Amino acid sequence: MSVLSPLLWCLLTLLLVNIQSAYARSVKRSLPEDGEVVAHPTVLILGGGVAGVIAARTLYEQGITNFVIVEARGELGGRLQTETIGVPGNQWVVERGPNWVQGTQTGDGPENPIWALVQKHGVKTVYNDWYGSMTTYDETGFSNYTDIFNESGDVYDELTVVAGARVEQQLVDLTARSGYSLIGSKPMTPADKACEYYQFDWEYAQTPLESSWIASSWGNNFTYDPDQGGFGDANEMSIDQRGFKYFIQAEAAEFLQPEQLMLNATVTNITYSSEGVNVTLKDGTLLVAAYALCTFSLGVLQNDDVVFEPSLPDWKQEAIQSMATYTKIFLQFPDDFWFDTQMGLYADTTRGRYPVWQNMNLTDFFPGSGVVFVTVTGEYSVRIEALSDEDVQAEVLEVLRAMYPDTTIPEPTAFYFPRWHTNPLFRGSYSNWPPSFFSGHHENLRATVEQRLWFAGEATSIKYFGFLHGAYYEGLDVATDLALCIQAGGCAGLAHVPEIKNAYPYVV
Ligand SMILES: Cc1cc2nc3c(=O)[nH]c(=O)nc-3n(C[C@H](O)[C@H](O)[C@H](O)COP(=O)(O)OP(=O)(O)OC[C@H]3O[C@@H](n4cnc5c(N)ncnc54)[C@H](O)[C@@H]3O)c2cc1C
Ligand SMILES: *[C@@H]1O[C@H](CO)[C@@H](O)[C@H](O)[C@H]1NC(C)=O
Ligand SMILES: *[C@@H]1O[C@H](CO)[C@@H](O)[C@H](O)[C@H]1NC(C)=O
Ligand SMILES: *[C@@H]1O[C@H](CO)[C@@H](O)[C@H](O)[C@H]1NC(C)=O
Ligand SMILES: *[C@@H]1O[C@H](CO)[C@@H](O)[C@H](O)[C@H]1NC(C)=O
Ligand SMILES: *[C@@H]1O[C@H](CO)[C@@H](O)[C@H](O)[C@H]1NC(C)=O
Ligand SMILES: *[C@@H]1O[C@H](CO)[C@@H](O)[C@H](O)[C@H]1NC(C)=O
Ligand SMILES: *[C@@H]1O[C@H](CO)[C@@H](O)[C@H](O)[C@H]1NC(C)=O
């Protein structure tokens, strides 16, 4: 960071605050009578996450300014959200959602566009060493299985290599669990399972059995492997106390006008035809537009939080498949009794029971914070969301007592976890590609319905599904096509595959 930058930050923050209060004013001005049409833009961008903001920027750059972003929450950023935790005098802004720029840049190879924005807007990040700074535990306490841990990384690499060979040979996809078996990896002990979990579930937020072998390998390669066009293997963790979300809010502040944004505006109905799209909000407001670009999560599309009229066609519904959940559980303690590495791994006899731990009380992270967090995923996340905070806290403390049998574990001074799965604006944390999802499904997830209803978001990215940069590229690419369509006075939109069929008929 240059010497000038504190001043620049001040200016930028001022700008942001001004623009945000201007938004607030514009939304207030337009509070409608029930059913009143308050806006007639060319495009309604539904959702103000990374995909929505980048789509808006793309339209703006193409000279199309008659658009409105419609967002249910009170701020932009979507899943980029913060929570302030801790006792008075020792409070920290932590990330409920995304925390890392995953893959940055290798040499002068392709740069992760999120990394570019993070640098442009001066968001503070630190390199997070996922593989070389690890302490391992099991139900008896400290237990050194670093050898198994290191081996699990090599096994994971082999999994992606053999998946690539299947693609070359045009063999069908299988579950990643079948893949592991075919390469001879059959974890038996809690330590084997915890290490496999760390390589796989901790990234995809679902088990190998629930995941596509081929797509999970793409998910790894296109982000992390420079030989496959990926950015690089580094993970940069945001520790910025303005929140990771700052990069996208500051980017929006550079081009977005107050009348182009409606916050606190929850969509309930989307009515579409080849003539246009009407969107109804919870308060009865009607928005009438020529086009809509829907960036809601796969979880929202899977549920009935938003009613499409007519219902989405079968080919679209069939493509709306798997939404995973990833849950970070934050604790603050009066003093630290845990590992001094960045990462800790706990092997329970139940696979996925409070396995991955992170130490934030380190010089480069939140020194003196006493903050540590543990992550659970998939069905385990769904399970704990149904429990009270007190019950989850008691389980987490029980695990810490197993990890540290000779230490008296104090009560935490703070305890927090977000419930992504039950949140009606998300219904999970990010998409994961199941083994029943074929290339045609992917095309259909992205495809336009009735020329007017368009889709974008992390889930529509074939290479980067699940990631912030997936949302970025989809916002960019789909809005680029939409702009061309508008400039041409209309178009068929992105094509779909009417029916996805087997290569051979079933023989029974
Ligand atoms: C816990 C967690 C950890 C993650 N970790 C990482 C990470 O470290 N690195 C990484 O690259 N990615 C990570 N991700 C994934 C990343 O957050 C997403 O890929 C990305 O934010 C998706 O952006 P989007 O624009 O596609 O969707 P969203 O951000 O979901 O944007 C859609 C918007 O639509 C709004 N909306 C929904 N329903 C309605 C409605 N009815 N009316 C109006 N508005 C509505 C939502 O409020 C939201 O703002 C993580 C996600 C989670 C949840
Ligand atoms: C959105 O709602 C919140 C909570 O009611 C409120 O504090 C905020 O000012 C609102 N923002 C806008 C832009 O209306
Ligand atoms: C764990 O065991 C490995 C040998 O397998 C050794 O190199 C390493 O130092 C040990 N780590 C600790 C923390 O004891
Ligand atoms: C595991 O790998 C790390 C490097 O990532 C290395 O420092 C360590 O010695 C290895 N440990 C064992 C037991 O192989
Ligand atoms: C993933 O990358 C590896 C190593 O570069 C490569 O051998 C493999 O074919 C790739 N897998 C897929 C599914 O693309
Ligand atoms: C929205 O959808 C619900 C459920 O189908 C329906 O009852 C309601 O009339 C719809 N509202 C509008 C404005 O279309
Ligand atoms: C949207 O609403 C307008 C005004 O009520 C109506 O004329 C139009 O037919 C509607 N369009 C769609 C796609 O439902
Ligand atoms: C954080 O770590 C430092 C250095 O190890 C230690 O002195 C301090 O007590 C820890 N703080 C808390 C609140 O745990």
UniProtKB/TrEMBL annotation:
One of its GO terms (molecular function) is oxidoreductase activity. It comes from the Eukaryota. One of its GO terms (biological process) is polyamine catabolic process. InterPro entries: Amino_oxidase, FAD/NAD-bd_sf, Flavin_monoamine_oxidase. The keyword Signal applies. Keywords: Signal. Pfam families: Amino_oxidase (PF01593). Residues 50-482 form the Amine oxidase domain. Residues 1-24 form the signal peptide. This is Amine oxidase domain-containing protein.
